[in-house]
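Quick board copy: two proteins, each given as sequence then tokens.
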Amino acid sequence: MMATDGVSRFKSIKSLPVDYRFTGSPAEKSATSGMISVSIPENGSGNMDRVVDDDSPYGQSSSFLMNDRPSVDDEDVHPSVSPQGSVLDSWGNKKWGDTASYVAKKKLQSWFQTSDGNWELAKILSITGSESLISFSEGKVSKVNSDSLLPANPEILDGVDDLMQLSYLNEPSVLYNLQYRYDRDMIYSKAGPVLVAINPFKKIPLYGSDYIEAYKSKSIDSPHVYAIADTAIREMIRGFLNVSLLYGESGAGKTETAKIAMQYLAALGGGSGIEYEILKTNPILEAFGNAKTSRNNNSSRFGKLIEIHFSETGKISGAKIQTFLLEKSRVVQCTEGERSYHSFYQLCAGAPPSLREKLKLKSANEYKYLQQSTCYSINGVDDAEEFRVVVEALDAVHVSKENQENAFAMLAAVLWLGNVTFSIVDNENHVEPVIDEALLNVAQLIGCEADDLKLALSTRKMKVNNDIIVQKLTLAQATDTRDALAKSIYSCLFDWLVEQINKSLAVGKRRTGRSISILDIYGFESFDVNSFEQFCINYANERLQQHFNRHLFKLEQEEYIQDGIDWAKVEFEDNQDCLNLFEKKPLGLLTLLDEESTFPNGTDMTFATKLKQHLKTNSCFRGERGKAFTVYHYAGEVMYDTSGFLEKNRDFLHLDSIQLLSSCTCELPQAFASNLLSLSEKAVLGPLHKSGGADSQKLSVVTKFKGQLFQLMQRLESTTPHFIRCIKPNNSQSPGIYHQGLVLQQLRCCGVLEVVRISRSGFPTRMSHQKFARRYGFLLLEHVAIQDPLSVSVAILHQFDILPEMYQIGYTKLFFRTGQIGKLEDTRNRTLNGILRVQSCFRGHKARQYIKELKKGIFALQAYARGEKSRKEFAILLHRHRAAVLIQKHIKAKISKKRFEDIHGATVTLQAVIRGWLVRRCSGDIALLQFGSGKGNGSEEVLVKSSYLAELQRRILKAEAGLREKEEENDILHQRLQQYENRWSEYELKMKSMEEVWQKQMRSLQSSLSIAKKSLSYDDSERNSDASINTTNDETNPGWDATANGRRNGHENARPMSAGLSVISRLAEEFEQRSQVFGDDAKFLVEVKSGQVEANLNPDHELRRLKQMFEGWKKDYTARLRETKVILNKLGHEDGDGDKGKKKWWGRLNSSKVN
């Protein structure tokens, strides 16, 4: 049983609201609709096995065999047009009696139209004559007329991606299939060559780089915009000009679909950087050209054709954007619930404080042009963030910051113009602008004098004969002048931005003639009040619909007839009558509008009256009361209100306003004025010139728009079109809501069902005899006697057993039904792959033989080259080895010599100390043994003390020599450190500072050591002097006392001197060791920092730690030096005291002798 999923009930066309009903459809005007009413050949019916064309943009072939349907020999069920306006004929026209038992047994499902106009899914229980017994899902059983039933498809076809795969192509089946896919976020479906896209009104995970790569590699064949773009770019590479045409009503998603197509083209043709600029044009154009309407939050109020050019390699080389008919009236007037252009709200919300102050900006609700509607924001849209995106996009397309500020100044000037008010100055209702904040801000922003602006808004110069007359304006005239100036400034700003974008996209880009164009034009519009803008938009849609019909219906069937194949025409809704209503001369809508616009006394009422007089007999026109009239468009009837038609069609800006812009000091207003003057054409207002003064006359809006439209149609005729039909599922712009009536109306308007029928029953694939024979001739197994292309083509068809009903042979071409050429292509590809495999095997064999011979030569050359290289490297290594051995020898000799000298010096020192100790130890015993000879003892004592003093002096000299060596080594380290500092400039200050600190500390330590040495030397000299005095005393005073004093003084003096020598030695040795350690550590850290040595440490941290250690040691060492100095001073004082005693004692002895 077919699952209903809550969508099995559909309203018929009779139950739709008036705006949904398709006026002129077979249900309403089957006799006068202008359709080509013919039947479909039975071989195009839905019961045959069908294969999807492999040549389609979506790839793989798939066949569907309808086994659930009865096999009937005499008559088959086939589609035609039902009385309800559906595409297929009802089952009532068939002989139900022949298959009644089968239908009742299988309980086939069908769509039944209930009394309330809804379609409901039911099962057929039995068929008797013209009546059928059916049961509904709730269990209700009814007997109905078989004519009211439409066949339903089996469950296996639920959600198929191509409507051509449906066995029964009627309206409820199509609606059900589209909703089935829509509910599962499968918004894209195929309708033959047309892609149907239903707007989901939400983000769905069907886009991004992964999907782009998948469609590029053909790993996905489901319907998608990417697939259409991929087909277009591949055809473009083969030499075709492609264009993707987007159709649909307002809010159907045309703009978003165009952006998605551009993303795919940019991804495939990227690499030059221009693709980023192309994508960045979208935020700019949407900000300045889109607005919120009652039916679309982001409605395009202009049309655009984006032409993307490619290089010979398929890379994007440039682009050009052409725009059509910007809705200028939206700048100065806006209905409730809608907004003006996004750019105004984005500027007010997102401008930075400096720009706001410069432009004197306020919030959006303080400008009268925006106050006409209380809608200042859109749900889910952050205008401030959108302003940031627009600025970023302007930067991307190389619009300078100065020009950006100038453009924003023009926007602010338009807003402030709306706030300019007028005051009546006389009884004739003449006015002058009030000089207030608004007027002054406008003058400042556009760069003119306030008085000049005031004069341009309140007066008008007219030339009568040779005289210039200044006419004061009434309130209505002044308001129109103000609004006209605001509209012109905004329109010129929009055109200027497009020009800047085109310059950016075309700079330095080489054109090759290969291009893909994307047409995104206004959708069909029908509001409560439809004015001049809707009139032009719907006219453009009529012209595009005719292009659609021409390519998918007219040209195809004309080609069948011209080539003489057996073909029955397919009926479709032709809108040529409606186009004639607009374009026919001399009594077409456009001609009458231009004619009335040239009359000085023409009004909107006279225009409406003239339309009713001349067009009342036209079947597509109906006059209404007052200023209104109705046009029967292809998408339904629309009532237009002619209020403002003439004024909007004239759309002229008085020369006074243009002169005001040209006198401005800012560049943009001057450029606008120049552009307006250059577009001036021959006067079209006729007598109005005399009364209106020196106006800038130009072509009327409809004339200019019609010319643009015809140029566009000529371009489209020279390209290969790809049609995308965008469908709007609901008017509330809410996700997940599917209004069947709205969808059905759009499907019928765009002729989707007819497209599927003509594609399924026709011959979509065609190929000339020559091309077919050339492409598939090599597949023939037997030689053809006659080698003309037609004979070869027929032989190919016979060889592959192509059924006669699957193709037809025309005068110049072969025509194939869907899927047939795919079989030939599959065979051709397999054959070519086999040929390529054989060729590749043979070429591989030859290549391998060649490679073998080549390898031998290469190996020989490589061996010789490696040998020569190795010999050179060996010679270099040998030379380096010898040099290294010599260097090592000298280094080892130097190290050994230094070690020997150190050991020798230490040995000599130890020997000297030991000998001195032995001498000192023995000196006392000798003195005791020779106490009788005072003179000899005195001389020996002097000799012992002299040797001891010499030893101390020698050690001091050695310490000084070692200090000098360390100073020299320190200087060398400083030089190396300076080199590293030059290489690593970031550490120059640190290392230089440390070097200065260390030098100061070295000098301090040296000075301290020198002071200690001098002190010690001074003490030794005093002791030597005392020793000589004592010797003299001993000579003059021999005896036991002298001997005893000599021994005591010798021992007492030896002990302090030995202690002092030991302290000095330890301090000098520690100084040498510490200097060496700190120097080595600093050198190591420099090598680590420079990268010469690898170590797992932080050089900066270790340098700071080394500095702290050095500071600590310096303080400790300085303290010990001070302590040593104090001790030496004490020892010196003690010796001094002893000498004084001796002197005193010596003096007493001398005095006693004298006495």
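And the next:
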Amino acid sequence: MRALKIFFVLLFLGCFCFVWGSEFPGWQPYDKISGKLITPHIPFANPYCKGKLKTLVIAPTWTQRETVELAQRLSIDYTPLMTESYEFFGPYPGGGERSYYLTISKEEFEKLVDTRLGDSAVYDLIVIGKIPWKVFPEKIKKQIISKVESGAGLLYINPSDLPSEIQGVLKEDVSVSSDITSVVPLKKIPLLSDISILSGELGKGRILTITYNSDKTSKTNGKVESLTPFGGDDPLYYDYYYSLVARGCLWAGKREPGVSFKNLPSDSPVFLRDKLTKTNISFTIEGKTSDINSVDIFIRDRKNSVEYEKNIPYRKSDISFSLPYLKSGEKMLDVMLKNSKGEVINWVSRNFSIASPLDIERIETEKEIYKKGEEIKGKVFLTDAIPDGAKLSISVRDGFNRKVGEYKTDGKEKEIGFSLNVKNPLTYAYTLTARIDDNSGVISEKDKKVYINITDFSRIVKDYSFIIWGDAFDNSRSIKTYLNQFYSSGIDIVYPSSTIWNKYEKTREIGLRIADANLMTAPHSVRLFFVSDQYAHLKPIEGKDGLEIQNCPLSLPSEKVKSNSIITHLRDNVAAALGPIGATYYSLGDENALSFPYYDVCFCPNCQEGFRNYVKGIYKTIDALNASWNTDYKDWSEVKGITLKDAYKQKRYPQWLDFRMFMDNAFSDFHITCAEAIKERDPDAKVGLEGPVYPARSGTGFNWYRMLPHMNFFGPYRNPIELHAALSFMPEDKLITAWFGSYQGETYEQYMRFFPWAILFEGMNAAAWWPAGVGGSSGLGGAAAYTPDLVPLEHFNWAVEEIKEIKSGIGKLLISSKRKLHPIGIYYSNACLHASTIRPEETTWESSLLDFHYILRDCRYDYKYISPDDVLGGKLSELSVLILPYAQAISPAEAEKIKNFVREGGLLMADFVPGIMDEHGKKLEKSLLSSIFGETFPSEVDVRSYGKGKAVYLGNYVKGYSEKRKRGEGKGICAGMVRFLTDLPTKKITPFADVTDSNGEIRQDVEVSLFENGQAKYLTLIRSITSGPAVKAAGAEAGGVSGAVATDATSVVNVQIPETSFVYDVRNKKFIGKTDRFTTNLLPSQANVFALLPAKLENMNLQLEQREYKKGDIVRFNVALPGEFKDAGMCIRIEVYGPDGKVIPYYTQKLMSNKGMVEGEIPLSLDETSGNYKVIATDVATSLVVSKTFNID
């Protein structure tokens, strides 16, 4: 299989480092630095002839990837001492639990520090990475100095505030600094050209300081380079930062090489290409040369690729070799002296350049980012006309390093135009390479990066995606490495949060950096959270009429909307930057809210004017308003909102409820306005929000049935109320996800394996992990997916394993099918939400919604929400059952629609006092539904007939069920609800399946969903998790951890389905038989999928268009299913295996059948390896496999 350029990291346990074993739990990244992740590097002194330096590296936690990078290049046994940041040694002293979520305790940190710096800890070398001396506590300072005085070396990167005992011994010793800098061509590497090196001795130890003066203009916040210069990722120079540091380590640790180089070329000479074969490079080796066995020569080009290498057996101290033909441009010469064991004795690097009269100056393209299908057009500019015998070619490689386009020309002029078309792009990033060749080889070569927007939202929402909260802020090798790690972990979409404040240029840079790793970007574009007591800038201000939002953007006059700072940021910084590369979606915020905790806002002039217009549209006349509100306003100009406190005091609840409804609308409408601003620059944009703060409570400002029809993305905290709002009110082309990850109490194995399946079965099409944990430099461990050296953490790997299986085809199968709902509607009204705030006597609106949700799901039913607009718009005709959850506030018009629904045969169910208020919260003399439920509400369950239909007043029957089920209680309530729903409706409503234990009792701990695709049905079962660690969740995510059912039930589950089918156990890959009942095993948190098919699938027919192909061809194929499956939606996974017998992952496809047929294409690259290939087609539901082979010559 072709090696992936973008996936260049190789995972194996290296022998070069000390693998540190952390005492902390598997989910805790602190102190975990294994060295398992090996990245491309030059092993300057690894292995080193004088053995390994036992090294303590003191640096911020999230910068310690550089410790491993150093260990790849220098033989060290490293021990990390991870600090909170560059500014704080120990735990962050400020407040804010969420800022340093799940970090280790102060006691744990102090215990570890005592171990690492105690008297028994002996080191050859201590390295301090850019932490000011003043940051260290006095005890730590004394311990470091004591170890140096006892003989340990100290290498201090970017020291500051040094004490007199260190400062007094440091000096600029030319002999020392020259020895250290001699290994690299200092003046040619921009970020090393002005470094400062001081050295000295303290007691028995040596001290060396290296100061990168280029760092002085950078803030340390968020920087992850503690050993190398900030922002220094350069394809050629990056390794040589470590070469310098490695030589500093050897000097400070008293392991300097015993031999040296003399007379090497200096001052970066320029050699003429046409005279290269007559050019010799000579140098002399001095010192203890008896151990030298060989001299290894490497010449690297600007991309750090080895262009020439030579091994010279050591015979004498004078070394000379001639240069071969090399292409023009900058080079780096590496010379390594090795002993007979292959250990490095010494090394040195020099810079030189090759000049040619004929050279490529640059490549220009019409633009940097192209749409799929567009031709890449541009020009190559040469220094001279192309002579006879030489040719220019332009090629393009994708992010997998596949050659996917080529342009050959016989042109000779100095400017040559070209046009390329990548017909089947698989990646976002592409490298254009212009090259001039003649019979001597490559004369000149230049690269240019371009991008193709391959985002296809229709494909994204029809398969399962994996999202991670991360960032890509800086030009850092560590950041690029962790982006590649995202890709290798199966991540599809990166959710960068810095786009909240970044300007256009930085946002675009981040988007392209993410695209380089073949990942998609979904920017956290803004945060619409307006009032809170937690932050000064969110505290409300006292206005003339009441509390106001600071700089309130709501209810602005239309002429001021476009110039509002939030709108201009979204339009001109975010959408303009990321629209061209194909942002997957734009998030309008994490944990948005109008206010939280509750504040009576907003009384600013614009909001009050908007409120007046709102109620004028409702009441028409001031008299009608006064009658509802119990006020005596004379003119509309007097009308204003009212606080909850005043509403209680003055008994003017309708005035408060109308004000809250207006503010809900205003807040929701502003989300819509923001979405429209983004679409001005990116017409194809998909916009939404995630993590809303307690939207089922007054004051937070969410009107889902007003907002969500305009949103295409939503990411709640797996709260069933918010999820069903999304499923009920959002358009078809929606991406719905939910957050999980390193939240308190969720990092145990059951939850990690449960969550990805649970959200899939609930109708979502993506899983979202919070957070990556890398990309900033603060925190003593904490919430993360990876260790500080970018190795996946244990709990993250559990989730990755499950998501990998889902993405192998089950996710595609279910998401491409229709999730079955019963004709059951739950009435969802913001007026009822606020009525519950006014009068929370029997229950709360939120609790009632949860109770009904869990009772229905435990009874194997599913439902949708019905809004007031849906009721008035005639959508009750789609239902057989309407449920009113604590629906105190209903309009007379809605009441008439509801009565007609029952009269025509519908079943109406309510828990408490439906319709005792109108839609404004005005208390009525009798319920608007009294003709159905009676003049007074009964104290017990009451069933009544009304016309052709029935009505059930439940009272306390379902109250508290969502909590009872957690204790394994309420099975009788479930049984009763099933009887209601099967016996009372005009048409019996059948559960998806009966799932019971051996005694025939309902299994509350198993949730059931059903997906349909034509004649194929897919039944999903998932058993609840057992309770995890008892913790207190810190924020709005707390709502997502509920729902666990405490149970000691057996793993054996009996399933009965409504009709006989051919049943397959999808995950266990076995045929159960033709049946309407079966038994399966489900451990806590375990999920399974059962295919209910019209026949047993015993064969498929895979056909290739031909058997012989050329490089660059399209391999067209089809898979035909038997006739019984013509109307059954099946998912076929296509995999391609190369001549080496390994799967080629970027050719894997998952395709849904259409009329019993699947068709597809495999776009071969222009440099595909010759040989025999195998195409394997696997039916996901049944695991039936067929294959065909083809050959590439």
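Board note added afterward: The domain at 457-532+558-598+667-818 is CATH 3.20.20.80 (TIM Barrel).
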